[in-house]
Specification:
Blueprint lengths: L2 H19 L8 E5 L5 H9 L4 E4 L2 H10 L6 E4 L8 H4 L3 E7 L2 H13 L4 E6 L13 H11 L5 E7 L8 H18 L8 E3 L6 H6 L4 E4 L1 H4 L7
Parallel strand pairs: 1-2, 1-8, 2-3, 3-4, 4-5, 5-6, 6-7
Length: 230
């Protein structure tokens, strides 16, 4: 698996290159290695090379990996679609939950976080591109959900998350990312903790960096092609 270190060298170099283009510093970006479907051995190798933030999109897979690797200083990020009956597996181990966009999810996260005496950091998922196949809320719905979040003492909204449309047109992708940043910049005046921008994956993270991302979710470029048939 030595290729993981080579891949990380490549990713680190690309991140550095695009931070320089955008006149940004390395402490403004958090790399989340998306380890979904990959075994813990892959995570250990990336961890040994200095990565300690990992993303999973299945609640039970997250729980199992977190238990196996509990002795490592790992920050887990849940980035998948939320099923409320599985929030009990996500909250105990997650530093951030990136994909919240319904009040019933907030209510359940808050309930479980309270049991664990924890303030759960969450991001609100935005559907900037307007694609029906994507989760998330519209720009018009954001203010209401931010106000709703105030009701829950054991969650803290730390930022916004989005996914770009599947297209080779970089201008379309850039517009989606810049619109998310514009939205964050507008609302952070009233919600000071709303600082994070989780956007950018293996194929578009360079655009995300130049558009103001604070969190990158990179998987296949680090770990290789996924086998979903496993």
């Amino acid at each position: 698996m030595g290729y993981i270190k080579q891949n990380l060298d490549f990713v680190f170099e690309r991140i550095k290159e695009h931070l320089e283009i955008a006149s940004r510093s390395s402490d403004e970006i958090l790399l989340i290695a998306v380890s979904k479907t990959f075994p813990v051995e892959y995570i250990k190798e990336a961890y040994d090379y200095g990565v300690n933030n990992f993303g999973e999109n299945k609640a039970q897979e997250l729980r199992e990996k977190a238990e196996i690797l509990k002795d490592l200083d790992i920050n887990w990020h849940f980035i998948g679609r939320i099923q409320t009956n599985k929030v009990k597996y996500i909250v105990p181990v997650s530093e951030y939950i990136h994909s919240v966009y319904r009040e019933k999810e907030m209510a359940e996260i808050d309930k479980i976080a309270k049991k664990h005496n924890k303030i759960q950091k969450i991001l609100i998922e935005m559907n900037i591109s307007g694609e029906e196949t994507k989760g998330g809320i519209t720009e018009k719905e954001l203010k209401n959900l931010l106000e709703v979040a105030k009701k829950y003492e054991n969650i803290e909204v730390r930022g916004l998350m989005t996914m770009a449309p599947y297209t080779d047109d970089e201008e379309i992708i850039r517009n989606v990312f810049l619109n998310l940043k514009k939205l964050r910049d507008e609302y952070v005046k009233y919600y000071p903790n709303l600082k994070e921008l989780s956007m950018g994956m293996s194929n578009d993270f360079h655009i995300a960096i130049e558009s103001g991302a604070t969190m990158l979710r990179i998987g296949s470029l680090i770990f290789g092609k996924r086998n979903y048939q496993k």
